[in-house]
Queue: 2 jobs
Job 1
Amino acid sequence: MSTEEFQYSHLSAQVFTSEIMARSGQDITSCYQCKRCAAGCPVAEQTDMVTPNRLIRMVILGDIEQALTNQLTWKCLFCHTCGTRCPNNIKTGRVADTLKKMALDAGLDPQNPEYKNFHKAFFNHSLRWGKINEIGMMGEYELRNIWDTMKKRKVRKIISHMKARSQFAWEMFRQKRLHLSFHSSKGRDEISRLYKKSAGRKWI
Amino acid sequence: MDLAYYPGCSLYQSAKLYNHQTNLVFERLGLHLQELDDWSCCGATSAGKINDFMAIALPARNLGIAEATNLPELVIPCAACYSRTKVAQKQLQDNPLLQNEINLELSRQTFGNIKVSSILEVLWREINGERFESIPLTKIEGLKAACYYGCMYTRFPYDVEVADNVENPQAMETVLKAIGVPTLDWNHKTLCCGASSVVYNTEAALDLMAKIMKDALARGANCLVVTCPMCQMNMESQQEKYCRKHGIKERMPVYFITELLGLAFGISREEIHPGGNLPPNGLEWSKMCGDSV
Ligand code: SF4
Ligand code: SF4
């Protein structure tokens, strides 16, 4: 939540709005606050009243701190209900995604670091092996979580987390969903060359 | 007829069953699936959360491999892989510079010369074909199916052509009707199940799944039918949890559409779902599958 009261500045609102529009590819200035997006958003009940239309307004007003830290930005499921219903074809899910990327680039600790850890683990695993091996990927995810919690010296939290996780893994194993075979792709060289090319690009 | 086939990582792991069933069912339909040689992960939703360039480059590699087969169509059963690949193809088409840049690193390049199809687009077309007509159908009794599509079959993060009605898709209903399984109208057929957020935002995801389950039950459904491995995994493997959390007493099986097609085509229960348990709602297989089992 915001610590200082938000002060509107025309210039920073404009700069912020243009950057979000360029990175997300969405013409958010055409939003006329009809709230069709709000009515369909599946997480809107859990976001402290930040509905997709409000997120758009936050960006346009240049309330950078709120835009990067509010609950919708971090809880958005990228389900695209907002986008298919918007009369102006604004895909707010992509705006939320862009805001998350900006926050991570700026080194802001997200409210839910597990979000970041999951996608990083998944992405790294796909770059390293060319294919996802669920056990390995989830292992990296857990290590990242433990590391984050350790930095905050919350040992109890690690223990309860590990308990919940091992139950989850056992459940998956029992349902024959965990497999021990290992897969990779020979195209890893091509993939790592492409990855090098992507360095430093903020948007495409 | 041969079709290029991209199974994706989950069909080799947690949704192995879906891969197995898809191959069996397509074979019966006279469609030979030619798995892409040395395919790699499409990046799913995660790549786009971290690196926009790679979110396009990863599926581009697979598209290149698919185009090198010279086949006209690439089938992708996993909804996430389908969405990623289809979107990447359109983004490359709209951005020739980017296409060029990515192609420079690929041994098999992509120029947009292949149609990317979901499993439903193919099945929908096939049930009107001669091959389907000639298959003797085994009646499946006792099911009332709620077809659950989830997000990725009709809603995309980029403007692409959508194969069905966005809010009220009909492909699964049409296919199930053709094999004589009754379906019902309901509200939440395209509501999000929470997808991978079940791992990092569990409670919120469970609430969404319970919403879906409750609506299906209220309409009188006794099973869910899906095509997305993530939806199947969530709705089935988390069923105890979300039902207990929301005081739901009933349980129901969550079938891949291929399971019901397989049974209708006369494939035995053991062959279509090796080691599968009895459906949790107590329906008996012998009653459901007539004399084929
Ligand atoms: S549906 Fe579109 S125009 Fe309406 S409030 Fe939402 S973003 Fe704005
Ligand atoms: S994409 Fe995000 S903001 Fe849009 S409806 Fe889905 S959860 Fe809500």
Job 2
Amino acid sequence: MGKLNTKVDERGCLACGGCISICPQAALIMFGGRAFVREDKCICCGICIKTCPIGAICEVD
Amino acid sequence: MEYDVVVVGSGPAGSVTARFAAEAGANVLILERRAEVGVPVLCGEGISQRVDKWDMLEGKRWIASKMDGAKIYSPNGTLVTLSKEVAGNETGYVVYRDIFDQELARRAVKAGAKILMRAEVTDLLKDGGKISGVKVRQFNEEFNIKADVVVGADGVESKIGQWAGFNTILKPGDLETCVQYTLTNVDHKSDYCEFFLGKKIAPGGYVWIFPKGKDTFNVGIGILASLSKPGMPLKLLNKFISNHSDLKKGEPVRLLAGAVPVANPIETVRDNLLLVGDAARHSDPITGGGLTTALEGGKIAGVTIGKAVEKKTFDKEILSIYETNWKETFGKKLHRDYVLKNILLDFEDKTLNMLADSLKDYKFEEFSTLSLIKALVFKHPTLLMKLKPLLKLSEKSK
Ligand SMILES: Cc1cc2nc3c(=O)[nH]c(=O)nc-3n(C[C@H](O)[C@H](O)[C@H](O)COP(=O)(O)OP(=O)(O)OC[C@H]3O[C@@H](n4cnc5c(N)ncnc54)[C@H](O)[C@@H]3O)c2cc1C
Ligand code: SF4
Ligand code: SF4
């Protein structure tokens, strides 16, 4: 099984910043007007996935 | 480049801070990563008419409509009304947030502040541990700007606060995750802001309908992030609209996602740095409103910075005048509403229905959370044990 990664769908993200304000690892940043997960910092806790109001964050292989 | 003050973010908190600092003689630069101040709008756009007394906004172009009061619907639809006739004339406006923010920025510029657009702050500059400015990326260039004071007015994301060593990370129980449509061609007659409560409607939050003039309404939802699931706010808002006979005929001209801190306010001052507005978690934990506190806090911050520049001292001690004054002006109220938020979260829908039923004919003395608390205690002495501490907190915040 490959490691799961948390990823923002850049076509869906509306740049509200909610996921960034809540990530316990400060692994999310705004980049080019979209939220972006820094894989080196993310621990795949899933908090941002639950928080995104439009469901633009998911886990991928 | 060197300034007395750099303000990160051109939202209401940033522009007002910049204006009052500049009016006090400081050399101020605002840095904004967006390409237009106030755009995109991420807001329900409701604000108290108290702003009329503050000399912050000139003209009327920023006003979309005037509200006559508030209607709160309990989970089973029981209506509690706070109306203008009873509560006096002071209710609220729905604003055009883009024009609103640009008007505040204009006042800052008029006072002498400069603005750089598309300028994203990527880190703090530190000089042997001392904060001495910011690192900026604008288009393909990266450069440093030195400043005696850095103001974090960077909204809910609040990276400036994190870089300065504050714990700004919100717990999921302290964030409302939101979406909103601006619907037009809506066949709905209302000059009230309307709020709809209930675990099935909006867990840990509410749905709002704000009249934006003519047949246009802001219809949004906030859900407590700890009670949300992926995409839940959008799904529940779509459901609410399709079940609402008037709204379902409307079409959207705007869709936005948003995030509002509903947290206890945090520490806001370090040597050479302070936080204002949403970055300081200054939005109200009950209503989610953050505009009035952004303006009030911004003014206090700007005036404090003016004093610091005059004295050429920028340490925590002098900047703490800001923290003392915002706590006095609205900090206690924010704390009271944080306590109240946690009490309300424990209430079952049937308790909310019962409470609403007892208040449905109540004449409220004013348009405020405090008058709601007072009415509840008056009607339900058994709630007194729970709510009495809030009244004490309210007395202190008077
Ligand atoms: C859906 C929703 C509905 C709301 N409804 C209401 C309401 O009806 N009434 C009310 O009073 N309040 C409401 N609020 C809250 C209100 O919008 C905020 O409290 C208010 O915007 C806070 O102002 P601010 O100046 O602190 O931050 P913001 O307005 O968020 O401004 C922050 C600015 O900083 C900029 N920025 C961020 N990071 C950087 C960086 N690194 N470099 C450069 N620039 C940066 C951003 O681009 C932005 O322009 C609502 C919020 C949401 C999300
Ligand atoms: S919460 Fe969703 S919409 Fe908001 S910034 Fe994060 S990914 Fe984008
Ligand atoms: S999964 Fe957790 S650690 Fe990773 S970006 Fe999301 S909130 Fe941060």
